[in-house]
Every structure is written in structure tokens, then in C-alpha cells.
Amino acid sequence: MKRITLLFMAIAFMGICSTAMAQGTAKKSGSAKSNTSKTAQKAPTKKPTPPPPPVKPITVSLKNLCEKAVPIFAGPKEGLKDPHSKIKILGGLSTNKLYIKTSDVVCILNAQDKPVSCTNVSENTTVVELNSSGTIITAK
Question: How much of the chain, in percent, has pLDDT values that exceed 70?
């Protein structure tokens, strides 16, 4: 019983000492009230998200290095679900001009109109190139 009482007294004494020390440090740097009110005023603020980059129409040179004709889709990514309106056939070993927007994609399509390979078009894209086998498309 005496040990428990002594333990509680020691804990209480430590609490009083640490409170006195904290108040003493606060008095040296300023009053304790002003110090706590400054921290209470600081609330975590959320940084606003930047607006998405503007969508601009651009002209891209489209090079087909494959010897056969290749069907492609050029347009918004959501349009890949039903690509029939945006399908273009590129002749073998040809260079074409493509007028698209900066957020669009260009994809090679297979016989079932499913994308085989796609590339995103950015503001810095000037050339989209199909490889010699007609299976990979890259933006440069």
C-alpha cells in the first residue's frame, strides 16, 4: 500500500515539475497564453489543385514506316469504346498530317477494332510514328 502511495506521489511530482518547466520556458520566450493561441490559429490548409492544362488543337505529322496499310484511331481516350467514327487508314510507307487536341490518343487498331498500341499526344508532340512492323506507335 505504501509503495502504491509513493508511486502516485512520484508521478504527481513529475507532472508538477514538467508543467512548471514548460511554463518557465514559455515565460522566457513570451507568455504561455500567446504561445498557445498562435498554435491554435494555425490550421492545416489544403493546397488548391492546379487547373488542368488547356486543351489546344495541334497538327502532328504521322509517319507509317510499315509497308502495309494500318488502321488507326485518333481522338479522345473515351472514344476508344466505339472507334468507328474516328478510324483512319494509313497507307504503307506514308507521311500524313493529323489535326488533333493535346489530350487525345493515337492508337493502332487490329482487325476487330481493338487497340494494339497507343500513345498520348502532348503539347510538345510533333511526330507520331508507326514502326516497320505496324505494331508499335510512338510520339516524338
Answer: 69
Q: How far apart are CA 137 and CA 107, in angstroms?
A: 7
Asked if residue 39 has pLDDT above 60, the reply is: no
CB 100 within 8 A of CB 57: yes
CA distance 71 to 89: 4
Rounded to an integer, what distance in angstroms lies between the CA atom of residue 8 and that of residue 120? 69
- 113-118 contacts at long range (C-beta below 8 A, 24 or more positions apart): 113/71, 113/83, 113/84, 113/87, 115/73, 115/80
- Grid coordinates belonging to 84: 468507328
- C-alpha closest to that of 123 among 72, 69, 77, 54: 54
